[in-house]
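Hello K.,

You asked for the raw outputs rather than the summary table, so here they are, unedited. I folded two proteins back to back in the same session to keep the settings identical. This is the first:
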Amino acid sequence: MQSTHSLHTHDCGVLRASDIGEEVTLTGWVWHRRDHGGLIFVDLRDRAGVTQVSFDPELSGSEAFSTAETIRSEWPILIRGTVRHRPEGMTNDNLETGEIEVLASSIEVLNTSVTPPFQIEDHVDLSEDVRLRYRYLDIRRPKMTKALKLRSDFSFAIRSALHNRSFTEVETPILFKSTPEGARDFLVPSRMQEGRFYALPQSPQLLKQLLMVGGVERYYQVAKCFRDEDLRADRQPEFTQVDIEMSFVDQDDVIGELEEVLQTAFASMGVEMELPLRRLSYWDAMDCYGSDKPDTRFGMEIHDVTDIFAQSQFKLFAGAAADESLFVKAINAKGAGVWPRGQIDKLADVAATFGAKGLAWIAFREDGSVNSPIVKFFSDEEMEALKAEMDVEAGDLVMFAVESRLMADSILGGMRSHMADALGIERDGHDFLWVVDFPLVHWDEDAKRYAAEHQPFTQPYVEDIDLLETDPLAVRSYTYDFVMDGYEAGGGGIRIHDRDLQLRILKLLGIDDETAEEQFGFLLEALSFGAPPMGGFALGLDRVCMLLSGADSIREVMAFPKTSSGSDLMSSAPSEVSAAQLKELSLRVVS
């Protein structure tokens, strides 16, 4: 593209053969400089790409050529010159500008640079700590520039899709009240009100419900959220979500609207999404894939084989079959049956990371033999039934979990993902689906109480409300997660809009009426003023952009992320503050 308000007339990377003969001005960083004796070639790089610039002492002039002899990598320069065809045999088909070059007539050095701590290249073996320490240099790499552009484009696309469907963008406060929503809050002390604290929002959840009470009806916001929790590749202490809420809707209304918004946004990125998306119930997802965010681009589904071994001589399996709370479940990792015995034995350590106490397995060798420590306990009938159920072929490895329903699913779901990676199973394209019908609550063994499966404001199924006190674990909720490529890319639900029901749910979660008024009084008060039926959704912008870019961490699509310990290596945050600042806030640090 041409630039009308810049030092340059064109971006690097946009000139083509159709521009030959044109006088241009380019700016950028010196990426590579090659001195070929009587000629100097410079690859000039900016956000749009690379253009080769040539300096010829006879055609560029002695002054420009002499200056070109002094420049070094990562110096920002301005050059003026004429677009021409590259000399015969020097075209570069791997470069979009590979057919042309700019013959420089003048050059201006805009600044110099010390030698960078690493080469500004995409394929450099470099520790992430060094990249984050010099993030402003890391961002110059074409891959990072492209990732940030992708994020910008997708953000714009989803904003436009929402705006065009009559959603109103509303900003909600960053300084708000601390409320228990599942993760730890980041607290901000108030100087003006000694001993009191704001909290940074974990999400705009309560505020968007209040907007529905206020009649906004269709709200969205690209919102910063903050959670003080342990980090991993797809989690940061501060992250961004596209927050959405609608009123006078049911679950189908919200999902239908979201599908159209998402389809439009993804289409702008060249990704097709065929509607309607599949919907899997929570238990179908768990029982088949061992995950409430399944990647269905490959098989290896979980099978319940409990009945096959009801009369087995293998006491572990037979005992589970006789116990209504236990199940024998299995997956078939096709191709892993040829692995050496020692390699298969090590899978028990992997299974242990998912909560397994051990790992029973049967390897079906390519020569027709069977290798397993447990196969001697099985009858021919049991083996034939197992082969039929698991679609066993030579070279397969069947692995078992004996546990409660949820635990067996979780163990084999973890092994399913591990084996897919270990076997190099291709996962082509993108995989989109909804997981619905989540349980309202689960039992928190550490806290010895019920905890919300998603958040405390989710509407239970109307037909299940009578079970709240008698069988809470059986209560289903109007909750839906948007799953992309085996990641929870977004989630939402229908909200409780009845004050009495909200108090009842909070009581189930161990929050009495007095505490509820203290923590959620403003919400409960609002619900008493004719709150409408409402439901919403939050899309994890960082996570979706990570998947669109093919990265393996959300840090690759964030400009200035933190490390896994929550540190900003570039600015050395978090850092100590002065005693005077602490005194102003009536705080002191206790070792």
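The second followed immediately with the same parameters:
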Amino acid sequence: MDEAIIFNSSHLFGFFSVFNPDAIKDIKLYKGGIPARYGGRVSSVLDIFQKEGNSKEFHANGGIGAVASRLLLEGPIIKDKAAFLIGGRGSYAHLFLPLFDQDNTAYFYDLNTKINYNINDRNSIFLSGYFGRDVFGISESFVNTYGNALGNFRWNHLFSDKLFSNLSLIYSDYYYGLKLDFVGFNWNSGIQNFNVKYDLKNYVNDKLQINYGINNIYYQFNPGKIEPSNPTSGIVEEQLIQKYANEFAAYIDVEHDISENLSLGYGLRFSNFIRLGQDELNVYANDNPVFYNSDLKIYQEGTPIETINPGRKGSLATFNNFEPRFSLAYTLNDNTSFKTSYTRLAQYLHLLSNTSSPTPLDVWTPSGPFTKPQLLDQYAFGFFRNIKNGEYSLESEVFYKDIQNRIDYIDGANLIANDAIEQVILNGEARAYGLELLLRKNEGQFQGWLAYTLSKSEQRTPGRTIEEVGINNGAWYNTPYDKTHDISFYGSYDLNEKWSFNTNFVFQTGQPTNYPIGQFEFQGLTIPYYGLRNSERLPAYHRLDLSATMTPRKNKNRKWKAEWVFSIYNAYNRRNAASINFSRNQDTGANEAIRTSIFGIVPAVTYNFKF
């Protein structure tokens, strides 16, 4: 957002987006052909820019609702020369939970800001920021807090009518923490990065545009600081070893219209990643931090043969990658077009996710001595067709992704507050492929779209030697993100000037997870054991949202315009499972499955206004 990295893009586990719609100017999603100016991701890129503020007159808009409220203000600081924008949101539905004998809590708040100043016809500066926090708690014993904070200073300079530059100084901070009173400690961690970007656009002529630039990102990873939460806690304060890295990239990107029907995009990105020194580093025999026990046929944490202190000045590992990009678009006629692309991407940060966890406490670790960067080769082919003079449109795309150096954790791995994460991860590979279809109705009282994706996302972690079994015996298995079927429907109907109606329906194949397939008794304890990794699934996720908007007719002649929105989230109260955990009932002694469901039906009334 405004060129800064967002590590978690949702509020309240997906109920809201961290991107405030009132503050957004432009959104671009790149999935297939990703331009060379983007890097560091092997999935996709969502590029969002906030509004710049109105430099001519003051405006405000907002909403007051039963679940959340929002307010956005924008206006001139110096008319036609400088402007500001500030917007805030917050939810408070948790305040009503005590009425239903619930002492749990779940809420968020965020703030968007932006200032712009036109120095002259050739120079403009922008200062933007964002701060957001989510809080999720179960009574007072478990409280999870997480969120993003970012700031960006940009200077736009126009060298000539054909050459434009953008210099950005960016700061981003992702915080995530836990308060666990029942075990007596608090855990705080996060990722900070400082990014310098310099981009240039050169409009050579009407048919040729060349983009090029450099950027440098410095990362600081705080795996966690553990502190006692009360005076009687037996926990000793401990700061886990912090990690540091630097990522540099240079790129050139060409947009070339060969003819009226054929356009090409091609470019090259060079990326360099240095895992910088740290206070302590474990050394292992044969550089192998994971030990394979051939008798038990399991992986175990390796034992360091020594611990060295390389210090902050040196480097632990260096990686260099060339990332070519190519895309082609061909317009057959006014209604039909095709596109195809090839993309090579490198991702130097790795995400380890416990698929059964309902919290966003995922573990990020940088590439280094024991972990290579992920490398993606992606191929895509798309088709677009206008139907009935544009009243309808059909888009389709097929894709295939091949990823090297995909990591996963060994069975029984401890991911949280682990000071030697290399002891619980193995390197493998991944692949994803699928078909996407999107049918839109673009005109008339009723408009909307229907989207369907059929896809597969899987990975393989084979053994490093002939005797090792790997994960799932070296066979392909589902990634945590695999969704065989993904269906979305959106519809809007304008009944008249006063009433309009909207509906939204989503269906997704359940998330892969692990269930116990048996148990055994050991010294009076019942111990479950599990089958193959990610071989089970949570129940399918689906829900229906409905809303009706009433706009008073008197809005036409007033500066103050308002509307009432009556909505129902999850209209048929589907208790979608965020996770399913297994335990023994204390009263009956029987095994039972316990489903954790975050949201059921949520009716709401919102009063929206603007002036």
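The chain has a mean pLDDT of 90.

Happy to rerun anything if the numbers look odd on your end.

Regards,
P.
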